[in-house]
Amino acid sequence: MSDAFNVESLYREHGSRLRWIVRRIVKNPQDADDITQSAFERLLKTDVEARPVRDESAFLTTIATNLARNHLRHRNTVQRHSESVAHHYTDVFVQSRTPAESAMPSEAREQALQAAIRSLPPKCRTAFVLCKLKGLTYQQAAERMGVSSHMVKKHIQRGMALCAARLQSGDKPGSNTTGAGNDAG
């Protein structure tokens, strides 16, 4: 606890208001909670001897809104980047084909892909289906799943790797050589 600030008292007094402000900016309750907590962490790290704070409420509000705006800028950059490289995701499956798979009829390849997706851990499968098959953004999938957009991205990356490994090895859906059967998600 900082000597200069009684953070518990400030949190009780301003936490709900800050969370409300941040949530209106980022439009996601989980992100708003994280950003609000980060604002209080920044307050704790403030060197009040070098730079005295006259109004803690205004200072916290400024920190929180700046963090929220930075979060939005980052999220928009990630989304733009994701959209610009979306075509590369399908390349993972094309590159993972063995010569035998390339000779397979397209219906058999489709069945193998569906089996690989079904074999994914539940959270990976849900994130993968929502974003890669239904076209939702990471943020939209995160809101549906009740997790952060960062976790959605991790689930998709894991799902892509597991699907590619399963397709490359030609595993049957019931086998567990790639670790895809782990329900930890």
How would you portray this structure in words?
This protein has 185 residues and is mainly alpha-helical. 73% of the residues lie in helices and 0% in strands. Helix 1 (7-26) packs across helix 2. The radius of gyration is 22 Å and the shape is elongated. Mean pLDDT is 78; it is low at 172-185.
Could you give the order of the helices and strands?
HHHHHHHHH
Shape: elongated
Number of helices: 9
Largest sheet: none
Helix content: over 70%
Q: Span between N and C termini?
A: 36 Å
Please state the average pLDDT score: 78
Count of extended strands: 0
Radius of gyration over C-alpha positions, nearest whole angstrom: 22 Å
Percent range for β-strand residues = under 5%
- Which stretches are low in confidence, meaning pLDDT under 50 for 5 or more residues running? 172-185
The structural class is mainly alpha
Topology record:
Layout: H1 7-26, H2 29-45, H3 56-84, H4 86-95, H5 99-103, H6 106-118, H7 122-133, H8 138-145, H9 149-169
Primary descriptors:
185 residues, mainly alpha, 9 helices, elongated, single chain, disordered C terminus
